[in-house]
Amino acid sequence: MKHEGTGRIGRAVRHGVVRLVVWSVEHAPLVAVLGALLTLVCVVYAAGNLPINADTNGMISNELPVRRFSAEFDRIFPQGSDLLVVVIDAATADEAADAAAALARRLAAQPSFFRAVERPDAAEIFRRNGLLFLSVPALTELADQLVAAQPMVGTLAADPTARGVLEAVDLVAEGLREGDFALDALEPALDELAASVEAAIAGRKQRLSWQQLLTGQEPDAGGARRFLLVKPVLDYGSLTPGAAATERLRAEARALGLTPENGIRVRLTGSVALSDEEFATVSEGAGSSTALAFATVCILLLLALHSPRLIVAILGTLIAGLAVTAGFAALAIGQLNVISVAFGVLYIGVAVDFGVQFAVRYRDERYRDDNLRSALRRAAGGVATPLLLAGGATIICFYSFVPTNYRGVAELGIIAGTSIVIALVLNLSLLPALIALLRPPGETAPAGYAWAAPIDAFLLRRRRGVLAIAAGIAAMSLAAVPGLRFDFDPLNLKDPQSESMATALDLMRDETSTPYTIDALAPSAEAAAELAARLEKLPEVRQVLTVASFVPGEQEEKLAIIRDLALLLGPSLAPRPPPPAPSDAELRAALEESAAALRRASAAPPAAGRLAAALESAAKSSPAVVGLVAKNIASGIEARLDEFRDALAAEPLTLETMSPDFKRKWVAEDGRARLEIYPAIDPRDPAALRRFVAAVRTIVPEVSGMPPEIIEAGDAVLGAFFEALAIAGTGVALMLLVILRRPSDALRTVAPLGLAALLSAATCAVTGLPITFANIIILPLLLSETVSYSIYFVERWRSGAEGLLQSSTARAVVFTALTTIDAFGSLAFSRHPGTADMGKLIAIALLWTLAATLLFLPALLGPSPGRR
Fold it and tell me: In this model, does residue 831 exceed pLDDT 50?
């Protein structure tokens, strides 16, 4: 016998839905006009009252311990937040330093775009006291090199132009004749000078590094790289708050000639650039994904409904629902965050489901009875309970995020959950009204799949075998689940090909510029030094910087060396009135004279001959070449001499004599001192990163920085997910029990969910697709979709229908799933890794959901109650 109906609640719901549909059909013109007006009003209101807030700081609840401490830390030491990090790479350290200085001056003059501009390498503490940070042996070696170069230094200080450089070459040639220089020591310098002249003859810019030539020291890995730390003016009303400042910065760099064509590369990274490029990538991917999804959804709707008029009705209802949802979001929330901005995609994916279910059932009823109004009324009665159950499950799943600490998703839950209410109302009022107005032609064939009859028969005949196979698949999937990977590092969600992320990855190769540092506070500078000593004993910690790290040791011995050096070089470096720039004729004469001097040095190394030949060729070249030779060999001399003058004026450096501006970066006005803790582990390894944070917290419980943010945000998101899952699961279960009234039927409804979840998790584990910040938020949605598909079949089965796969319900479920997969799965083609992973997970989960619903559920249900 048939199952009992759904009781008084179910009958009341069905009766109410039928009355709403009948009323809407009878007053179709009025409903359509009201729908159009409501759509227009909501569009206008949302356009003026629904801004996008791209500030990601509010995505996680500020009540988390790390968020509270981070807010306090940023208040005390604001210099590290909201930064554009400008990375300047050049062929030489001189060129990189000069480029950084020029760009910093240009940016600092534009406060409407840049609130602060800092050159870390040019801070007074390093400019005046840089030599104190060398070891005693290294400083001694440098001093010897500079003393040996004293004649050249004096010549350049007297005439820091190309003419002075060529006079210095003459001194070198004389020294070679007299045997005053070691040949092997001069060979590299002469080669560098020859290469610079040859480049000019070939029309290329290739500056000499006078820092390297005068000190004889090869630059380290970062020697030809300089940084600017820029705090831009941000516009949080845009998805890319730093876009205006970034564009102005790039324009200034181009105006200064800081381009790859001139041998200088300027790249941007830092929190502002990373966020801006991520949102730009997401927007670009969302636009292409939406266009692709819309086109393919239309094709799928045509295949499902075989009626352009029905498609127009569904799309009209869809557009109205989007507009009303946007109006609600503007009224209730007042803004969209970077997560809730995706409500449109979610709405399309779910709302199309309701439209397809109603329209396919209408087609089935229209085939049985060609009367349009009668078919709409019976379709309403047939889909009322399953549609409201499916909608209710989806609403519960979205609202389940509201009470969690994941504020970004909580706001999305409010908007998306309400959007489903809107979708249900419109699909049961506006959609039937539009169908009545458009009057699609009658149906000539059943809406189901007659060809599926053998599959229906097989699933019933071999149901025990099918269920056994399903149990075996579930067991194998369960065994694979431990391999599922959770990755909550936000950097892994960014496009590695974008400039900001590629630059960040480049910097991460240098352990001194890794962003994975932990910040902590101590009551005083002395306490910070004590904590640093304890922290550096941890195997997970490589080094700890405090303000005391910038007070060099062995200062007395080093200062003695510097004073002796200043005594010897001081007179040579004394500033003098700048000489007039040499004319073209003077330069040609100097080139010829220097070449001749090198030719006369019989004991000269091969590089001297190479340089002589280059100088002779340059002397015979065009004025443009001669001018380029002058730039290549003399640019930056004055800046380097100024740096030497500053360095030779070093004085004892203590916490008391330290520059107040620099000290303020490490010690707050209330005396609290900052610690910057560097990892000794691979921070891209989640387990190692967790160990690093846990180890540091054994000594300093309150910390901030990227590592604890990643760990606590990941825990918060996982907690939000499990909390939402518990709420959604409980809510859906209670709803099914109340409406279906039979626990066995409720279990049958959710059983495909368990199988699909295991298969999806196993697939992710096997393919290496991780669970991330981006895709974990859609898992409750998958719960609702799975339950929805099952509800449609279970309700059909409870009504006594046979041949579930042959029914119009099967057709509706198939095309509902395909349109949802299409709407969300198209995200898999996004350039943004986080968005792409979301699309992949949705496609995988919904495909397994569809398979479980079509192949496992009919076998689980068995013969319809009417055949028992």
Answer: yes
DSSP letter at 771 equals: B
CB atoms within 10 A of CB 75: 10
Instruction: Say if pTM beats, i.e. exceeds, 0.85.
Output: no
Answer left, alpha or beta for residue 322, where phi above 0 means left and psi between -120 and 50 means alpha: alpha
Does residue 385 carry a pLDDT above 90? no
Closest CA relative to residue 451, chosen from 150, 717, 807: 807
Question: How far is CA 294 from each of CA 291, 319, 344, rounded to the nearest angstrom?
Answer: 5, 12, 12
Cα dihedral 9, 12, 15, 18 sign: negative
For 206-342, strand residue ranges (E) read 225-232, 264-269
Q: Outline where 333-440 has alpha helix (H).
A: 343-368, 372-399, 407-427, 430-438
At residue 545, the 3 state secondary structure works out as strand
Nearest to 349 by CA among 433, 412, 288, 419: 419
pLDDT, tens digit (0-9, with 9 covering 90-100), for 322-367: 999 999 999 999 888 767 777 777 787 778 888 888 988 898 889 8
Q: What are the Cα distances from residue 550, in Å, to 97, 132, 659, 662?
A: 22, 10, 11, 10
d(CA 488, CA 799): 46
Stretch (H or E) spanning 754: helix 743-767
Contact present, 18 and 747 (Cβ < 8 Å):
no
Specify the pLDDT at position 862: 87
Distance CA 80, CA 222 (A): 21
Which pair of structure tokens corresponds to residue 454? 């053998």
Residue written as tokens 């945000």? 713
Nearest to 507 by CA among 229, 759, 214: 229
Q: Are β-strands 541-545 and 264-269 bridged in parallel, bridged antiparallel, or unpaired?
A: unpaired
Cα–Cα distance, 167 to 402 (Å, whole number): 77
Neighbours of 548 (CB within 10 A): 16
- The whole-number pLDDT of residue 510 equals 80
pLDDT digits (tens, 9 = 90+) for 51-85: 876 566 666 666 777 778 888 888 888 877 788 99
Per-residue pLDDT at 5 exceeds 50: no
